[in-house]
Give the backbone structure.
Amino acid sequence: MSQTIYETQVIGKGDNVEAFGTEMLILFGNEAPDTLKDFCYSIKVEKPKQKIEPGQTLMLGDHAFKIAYVGDIAERNLTNLGHLTVNFNGKEESLMPGAIVVEAKPNPGMAVGTTIKIVA
């Protein structure tokens, strides 16, 4: 049985979230800088229940992605700002400090109301 590490919901969607294609998406709470707002999915800021680690699964609605790499400040940014960048290429070299890298599968995109979870 899976354990939920983190759960939130998409509450808004910037006009240019598709600008990163199927490679990347950006989550941000209400504090997103104006220069980034159009490129972000807005989420409710929630605190992870435990450490986010490789091997866990990111769920974007019904779409599952195995987490391959976790940046040094990804969990802190998610906790404090609701900010997380997700790279969908599975490559360690694309890992930024505030990001996670998931297995190489296309970003499915999300609608307002989509549930985002990280499960172990």
Observations:
- The radius of gyration is 13 Å.
- The beta strands are 4-13, 24-28, 40-43, 57-60, 63-70, 84-87, 99-102, 115-119.
- Residues 74-81 form the longest helix (8 residues).
